[in-house]
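Q: My labmate handed me this sequence with no annotations at all. I'd like to see what the chain might look like in three dimensions before we decide whether it's worth expressing. Could you predict it?
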Amino acid sequence: MRTPRLLAAVSTAAMLSACSLAPPYAPPTIAVAPTYKELGPWTPAAPADAQPRGVWWAMFSDPVLDDLEARVEKANPDLAAAAAAYDQANALTAQARAGLFPELDGGALTQDTHRSDNAPLRTGGPNNYAANQVGVSLAYELDLWGRVRNLVAASGDRAQASAADLQSVRLSLQAALADDYLALRSLDAQDRLLRDTAGAYARALQLTQVLHDGGAATGLDVGRAQTQLSTAKALISDVGAQRALYEHAIAALVGESASQFSLAPTTAALPQPHVPVSAPSLLLQRRPDVVAAERRAAAANAQIGVARAALFPSLTISGSSGWQSSGGIDLIAAPNTFWMIGPQLLGAIFDGGRRKAGVQQARAVFDQASAEYRATVLNAFRGVEDQLALSNRLAVEAQDQQEATQAAQRTEALALTSYRQGASTYLDVVTAQTAALQAERAVIVLNSRRLQASVDLVRALGGGWG
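A: Here is what I predict for the chain of 466 residues:
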């Protein structure tokens, strides 16, 4: 009669195992605008459709940058650490999923025993005996309240969050490399400008010296010309120092020693990319930090179900079976068979409110994760708006600065011509030269800022586009 009762109990428990005490989950809601405010005429085109979505740095058309980005993927230790963290999360998910299945263990035992003559409650029997046993044991928790299933769901959500973290680290490293590389190339352009300027200043100094020797210029003019030349040379050294720091930073990003890494200077100008703007819905799908925050909220929701399940009794079915004898060679024989099977129901009667507090903690963790998700979304939209505003206004500023540079160059040429003819002092030349150099450096810096704003927009959008 025991077997039908046991089967009925197991069947009832199996039907109850469809229950789950986790609240129905929906991603935390947040109000967002239907479109970006800072749209502007600076985004007239999108890259070719055939361009790979993830290789966003290809918009700069620089093979050196392409090679460096590939080396980040292969050798950066921070990326390797993030990949290892993702592997750990997957392994934890597999461990949690194993709880959905019965655990079957096997074992074997052989031992010789000698009993004490003065053993408590001894009532006879042999002093020496052997025991041999071989068999299997079974343990299975019936998931009545969804505890195991919610553990699996939470672990899976955390693994997905870890995958998004990996993508976030990858994007961050790629963007950091692009930022450093663009800054380094800007310094290359400034170095070229300063060296050309130093050459022009040296010729101006030579002219001033000739005029001074002929009595047409004063020693004050010579001093001013020498100051201009020395200042330009000092700026060349300063630019070289800054370039070295960016080169060292790039070396660390690609996983190489700064002592053995170098990038040859180049004067090739990088094109200003046309960056298309995606809809806000795409932003939520593509930004890995937003995905990670949402998945952690989902995991926290599942943990509420785990905590609530602890309020109810757990039902475990365990059993064992095998062969047991006191010696001899015929261990595996019908008379030596033994077996045991039965359910165990275990529940708390009094725990001082510990389990109830666990539920409250789980709900608070979910509330925290939801708030962090909302904050991540708001920061994502702010980041996109920031870069759209910056890029839009930098484009206009670059046009005005280019006109200012052309005017400053004309002024410098007129001042130098006027000085040669004796119609002005060298102070006019120095003033014009300083203004021209500052204007030309400003153009270079603005172009670099526009390029870096494109990188920052890619970072804000969560990657490339296609």
